[in-house]
Amino acid sequence: MNIDVFNGDADGIFSLIQLRKEFAVAPSQQLLVTGVKRDHALLQHVTDQQAQGADIQVLDLPFDKNSAELPRLLKVARSVSYIDHHFATTQLTHKRLVTLFDFAPTVYTGLLVSAHLRHNQLIWAVPAAFGDNLYAEAYEQCRRLGLSPAAAELLRELGMLVNYNSYGLSLADVHIAPATLYQQLMAYESPLAVVADGSATAPFKRLQQGYAADIELAQSAEVLAATPALRAVLLPAAAWARRINGTLANQLAEEFPHQAIVMVTLNPDGQSYYINLRAPQSNRSGAGDICARYPNGGGRAGAGGINALPLTELDALIETVNDYYSL
To answer: Which residue range forms the structural domain that includes residue 224?
Structure first.
C-alpha cells in the first residue's frame, strides 16, 4: 500500500502528481490523506493498521507539525519519505526515513520533487510555483521548458486557482475536495491539457467560475491600515472570504511589492481572526517567524498565517509587522 500524505494546496497537489506520473500506483493501492491548506498535522490521521508494511510519502507539510507521529508510524511502515520546504526545528533520523528539505525562500516542494525526478515532470512543477506565489521562479521554469508567454500565463492561472481552492476552515468551504481535485488533474496528460478542457464540468472551468464570483465580492474589502511597509485588509466571516483570503493576499503582494500584506478574516466564532501574512516581495523574510510567535501560527520566510488570533491582539500584530518591515 502507498499512503500519500500531502498539503491540499497547489504545491502539495502538483508535487504528488509529479511523483505519481513518474511512479504510477493503482488506485486500489493508494490511500490519499490531505485537507485544506492550513490542515498541516496530517500524519495523525494515518492509523497503525493502515501504515503496516506501507510506503508513506509526505509532501509539503511542516515537519515540526508531524514529527511527533513519525516514531509511531516508523515502527510499522516499510518506509517514509518526507519532502518539504517549510522551516523545521525538529530533527529525526531513522533507517526507514528519508528526508529532502530545503528552507530557502525561493524553493518550493514541487521544485524539490522535480529535482528528485531529474526534472522529468517539470511542467507539473510550474503551477506549483505560481500557486506558492513564487512568480520569478515559475517564469524561469517556463523559460527552461521553452513555453510561450501565453502558455506560461495559462499555467499561472491554473496554479492560482488550485491554490485558491485550498483555502478554508474545512472541506465544506472549498469548491472541490483536494483529494478529488488531485484525482481529476491526474487524468490529464499535462497541465496545459487541464486548462484546454473547456467542458462545463472540467475542474479548471469550475474553479474559474468560483474564483470570479469570490473576487468580485472581495472588491469591497476594508483597508485597515496602509503604510510604506504594510497593507492590512479585513474580510468578513463568510465562506467566500475564507476561500479568497490567501489568493487575495498573494495578488496584493504582487501589486504592492514593497509592502507586507496582512489579510484579516473574521472567524465564524466572531472571537478571533484568521490571518494570512505575506512578506514584501522585495524582502522575503520573517513572515513565518512572526506568525510562529502565536500558538496556532507558523509558515515560511515569505508567507505565514495564524489560525485564530484573538480580536484584541490584531492592533499589536499590525504594529509588529509594520515595525519589522520598516527596518
So the answer is: 220-326
